[in-house]
Each structure stands twice: as structure tokens, then as C-alpha cells.
Write a structure and sequence with these properties.
Elements lengths: L9 E4 L5 E4 L11 E6 L18 H9 L4 E3 L5 E3 L2 E6 L5 E6 L13 H12 L8 H4 L2 E8 L2 E6 L6 H6 L8 H7 L14 E7 L3 E6 L12 E6 L3 H10 L4 E2 L7 H5 L4 E16 L9 H9 L3 H9 L3 E3 L21 H10 L12 E2 L2 E2 L1 E7 L6 H14 L3 E7 L1 H8 L3 H4 L3 E5 L7 H9 L20 H11 L4 H18 L2 E14 L6 E2 L5 E2 L6
Helix pairs in contact: 8-10, 14-15, 14-16, 15-16
Length: about 525
């Protein structure tokens, strides 16, 4: 099918006023004004609380269309006003007063006012409701309605990441009236939001259909429908894009880029991500409780070859616990690929191959780790796991790969140690509020309990009191340069403690119709089809 016969349309940005549509097609039909996003992950939950948009990142991508926030990001992760027109920061840095837009309404027609914002902030502060993202919300002390269109948000101490929190997915603003009438958990399947599009129908795991919010403060949205459709297979997504069945796809594998670029009717969109990939090691499980063993395993993996050969120039080997473009990033000396050094370090730690079968022994038993890997959650996830397993086995560490369905993967990572069933697990944390401090705090602040479920995403059970103190200090350090210096020191410690085998940072790769503007690929791995972030 040629591009001339495909359904086409063009979205143009109109700054902070929202988005407008100008059709470039003479084709008639009910789908002319519909945008279809073929997603690599399904959407099962569209509420900002509880499990916070399960099946990441798809739920977040829908949330930026369903909800507004006080402030939001643009595609360069700069802050922009949304429901708040302006704000004033207190001299003591412990509160911010926001002036709201007049006339903004929820999808049910109720007003977006200071009391509604206060209601939403207090819900997210409640750990029983907002069970994840705690580093974002625990520093907040409360919210007060100063008048109908003025709200003040206070923090316990100066909080460097308040705006990051408000722009985060969990900062979505819902209708208090709908929550009180329909129940606290109604947001997960049938939310009443504040954004340009509202829920028309939702078939969890398959398709979400949105209709325009005609009372939207920036004017009636241009599209008649926005459809998020689950298309799990990458080749199928590309075929659907080429045929015109979908307008946008995410999760494009590197080997399919050339196929898309060869089609004049399509375009590839890329952005370096903020998600460093790695293999989490259970640091409380012997012999992974020995830092020299963990360092040895880092020397065993050919990370440069993984980045270059498996991703065809669309990835870069890590040299920090943070991705290169993350605010607060500080580079470290990479672990060299040196199998001989890895063997020597394992032997020095008492792990030797006494029977000559190629596997080192721990307490007289062959050392074999279970490597947990999802199928289709991360780019080349199974291939990376197989490559890493071969490299580890080459230095004498036995590996059994345990593949797990994507729907079970996230929860399995956070199971208590006794139930986890893995010692090494593939993981990549995405700081979805664009902050390196949030990233480090979520992954490396000590858990209150290193036996049960991790408090946030410290699935390695890593614990270093010096790192804890540095991250706590950074949280209350408002000056950006001073905070960066603190985070650099913390990154040095974490890198040397090696709770992960750090691998690579991938580019995010999406694709759209060539005549479709206004689709943004954010470094926090979201493909945003709102037509601009305002």
C-alpha cells in the first residue's frame, strides 16, 4: 500500500494553548479524525494511585492524555505550567503557592479548584492509597486552599524535587466528586480526569478508547478519538504502521529501523533514555554478599559488545548507576571486560573449580544462580540474558535462565527474598520524574526490612549507611550544584559496591506516520501522543 492511499492526518502544536488538527487527507470515514497508538505493553490500570499504571510505560502514556497536572514536562523535561498558571516559592523553600487557571473543569463538569487540588495531593500523600512512588510524596507535609483558585503545598523540609513530583504520572489530578461517588479504586478502570480526552471505553489488557473533553480549558481537543491498542509483537506493530492500521508505535527493535526508514510514509523517532539496564544481584545472598564477587561478575560481562552489537548503535555501555542524560549524572571508571581478572577475583573469594567441571564451587557445591528475565519487557531482554549467561559461565559461574511472562515480571522482582526464586534479575529503573536523586533514592536507599518486599525498588537489598545519609542530604539541598556534588559522591560509592552488573543505556525508539507531527518521545521512555505537553 502506498502512502498516497493511506489515511493521513497532521497534528500541529499550538504552544501552551493545546493542540489543533489540520487534516491532510481527502479520505472520508469515521477514522479520519482518530489517532491509534499501537503499544508494546498492555494497559491494565489507568489510575495514578495504588499500583500506579501497571504494565509500564503504557499506562503512563495514556495518563498524559487523560489527566492534567499542576505542572508538566515538555519533551526536553523542562517544567511548564498546566493547571497552574503561575507559582511563588516561599523564602524558606518549604512551600509553593500555585495560582490555578480559571474555568478549568473535570470530565464530569465539576470545577478544578483549590479544594480539588488539595484533595488530590492528600490522596497521593496517603501510603495506603499511593502504594508506590513514596520518595516523591513522603517529603510533602500538606496542601491548603488559600482561596478558590490558590493552593499552597508545604513540605517538611526544603524539597528539591517538588516540581518533579507534581509533573510525575502520580501527580495526575482526578475529580474528587467522582472518587467520592464511585469509590477510591474507581480510578483504576473508570477514572474521571482533567486532561483533553476522557475514557469512552476500556477493555483492560487490550484497548483503551478516549473521546474529547469538550470543556477542556485550552479548547475542544481536535481528535474525535484516541485509541491505545495493545500490539505485543514488534513485527506486527511495524506492519500495522505500514498499512495505516495504527498511526504511532513504540518499542521498535533496532533491526527493524531500516525497514521503517525505507518507507517514505513513515518516520522513526528516537531519544536517549534515562533507564540504565542491568542485572540486579541479591546482595544478602551468599556469595553475592561479597563485594569482590559482585565486582568480579561485572568484569565478566562484555558490556561494550552488548551495546554495540545487539543494539546497532542505539545503546551505550553504562559507566554510572544513572543514565548519561539524567539530572545529577556522574560518570565512573567502567568495569573492564576481563574474564581472567574475573576468574582471579572469584578464586580469591574462595570460589574455585576443584573437580574440573567448569563451574566454581561454594561450600563444596557447584555455584549456580537463577537469572530472572522477562520476555518482551525490555529491548533484546532474552538475548541479553543469554549473552550474559554465556559470559558468566565462561568464568565458572553456572546460570539457569528463568523466563517469566511480562504480566508477572514486576511483582516477581519485588517478592520477599525467600519467595523470589532468583539471585540475579534483569531490571532497568526509569526515573519517570526525570530526577537522578529520585532514581538513586528508589533503588539504593536501604530497605527497612531486607527480608520482605523492598520499600520501593531496592530489589538488590543493597545497604550502605553512608549512601543513605548522602541521599537524605540531597533531598533537602535545593541548590542544584551542591546537590549534584552530593549525588556524585553517592554514585561513586554505589558503583564501587556493585549491587548490579551494569549493562547499557538504550535509545527509546518509536515510529509514526511521516505526516504526523506533535508526537513526542520523552527521555523518561514515554511516547506522548497528546500533541504537546501543555
Amino acid at each position: 500500500m502506498t502512502s498516497a492511499t493511506r489515511r493521513t492526518k497532521r497534528i500541529l502544536l499550538a504552544g501552551a494553548a493545546g493542540i489543533v488538527l489540520a487534516s491532510t487527507s481527502s479520505l472520508a470515514g469515521p477514522q479520519d479524525n482518530t489517532l491509534v497508538f499501537g503499544q508494546s505493553q498492555s494497559i491494565t490500570d489507568i489510575g495514578p494511585a495504588y499500583n500506579a499504571f501497571l504494565q509500564y510505560p503504557s499506562g503512563y502514556e495514556a495518563s498524559f492524555v487523560i489527566y492534567d497536572r499542576l505542572v508538566t514536562f515538555d519533551d526536553q523535561l523542562r517544567f511548564n505550567p498546566q493547571l497552574a498558571e503561575s507559582w511563588t516559592i516561599a523564602d524558606d523553600q518549604k512551600s509553593v503557592t500555585f495560582k490555578l487557571r480559571a474555568g478549568a473543569t473535570f470530565h464530569d463538569g465539576t470545577p478544578i479548584n483549590a479544594e480539588a487540588i488539595k484533595f488530590n495531593i492528600e490522596r497521593m500523600m496517603d501510603p495506603e492509597i499511593n502504594t508506590t512512588n513514596r520518595p516523591l510524596w513522603d517529603p510533602i507535609a500538606g496542601a491548603d486552599a488559600v482561596d478558590d483558585l490558590t493552593v499552597r503545598i508545604s513540605t517538611h523540609e526544603p524539597f528539591a524535587l517538588l516540581f518533579n513530583t507534581l509533573a510525575h504520572g502520580s501527580g495526575a489530578i482526578l475529580s474528587p466528586t467522582a472518587i467520592m461517588e464511585n469509590g477510591q479504586e474507581s480510578e483504576t478502570q473508570n477514572p474521571v480526569g482533567s486532561g483533553p480526552y476522557k475514557v469512552e471505553s476500556f477493555n483492560p489488557g487490550l484497548e483503551l478508547v478516549l473521546a474529547p473533553h469538550e470543556g477542556y480549558w485550552a479548547g475542544k481537543p481536535p481528535l474525535d478519538k484516541v485509541i491505545f491498542r495493545y500490539v505485543p509483537e514488534a513485527a506486527t506493530r511495524v506492519s500495522a504502521l505500514r498499512s495505516g492500521d495504527v498511526d504511532v508505535i513504540d518499542g521498535v527493535p533496532t533491526h527493524l529501523i531500516a525497514q521503517i526508514e525505507s518507507d517514505d510514509g513513515l518516520q522513526v523517532l528516537t531519544s536517549p533514555s534515562l533507564r540504565p539496564m542491568g542485572l540486579a544481584m541479591q546482595t544478602t545472598v551468599p556469595p553475592l554478599d561479597n563485594v569482590d564477587v559482585r565486582r568480579a561478575l561485572n568484569h565478566a560481562i562484555p558490556v561494550d559488545a552488548i551495546a554495540e552489537k545487539l543494539f546497532l548503535g542505539q545503546a551505550k555501555a553504562s559507566n554510572s548507576p544513572l543514565a548519561f542524560n539524567t539530572v545529577g549524572y556522574h560518570g565512573n571508571e567502567p568495569y573492564s571486560y576481563d574474564p581472567d581478572k574475573a576468574r582471579e577475583m572469584l578464586a580469591a573469594a574462595g570460589l574455585t573449580d576443584s573437580d574440573g567441571n567448569g563451574i566454581v564451587e561454594q561450600d563444596g557445591t557447584d555455584l549456580v544462580f537463577t537469572l530472572l528475565v522477562p520476555e518482551g519487557v525490555f529491548a533484546n531482554d532474552v538475548l541479553i540474558a543469554e549473552t550474559a549467561a554465556a559470559a558468566l559461565q565462561d568464568v565458572g559461574v553456572g546460570i539457569e535462565i528463568r523466563k517469566i511472562e511480562r504480566s508477572s515480571f514486576w511483582d516477581t522482582l519485588r517478592l520477599p527474598v525467600a519467595e523470589a526464586g532468583w539471585q540475579i534479575g534483569m531490571f532497568g529503573f526509569n526515573p519517570s520524574n526525570a530526577s537522578g536523586l529520585y532514581h538513586l533514592d528508589s533503588m539504593y536507599t536501604s530497605n527497612p526490612d531486607n527480608v520482605g518486599r523492598p520499600a520501593v525498588w531496592n530489589i538488590t537489598r543493597y545497604s550502605n549507611p553512608e549512601v543513605d545519609a548522602l541521599l537524605a542530604q540531597a533531598t533537602v539541598t535545593v541548590d542544584g550544584d551542591a546537590r549534584a556534588a552530593i549525588l556524585a559522591e553517592a554514585q561513586d560509592m554505589i558503583w564501587n559496591d556493585a549491587p548490579y552488573i551494569w549493562l547499557q543505556v538504550n535509545n527509546i525508539i518509536s515510529a509514526t506516520r511521516a505526516d504526523l507531527d506533535g508526537v513526542e518521545v520523552w527521555p523518561v521512555i514515554f511516547t506522548v501522543v497528546r500533541g504537546g505537553a501543555y
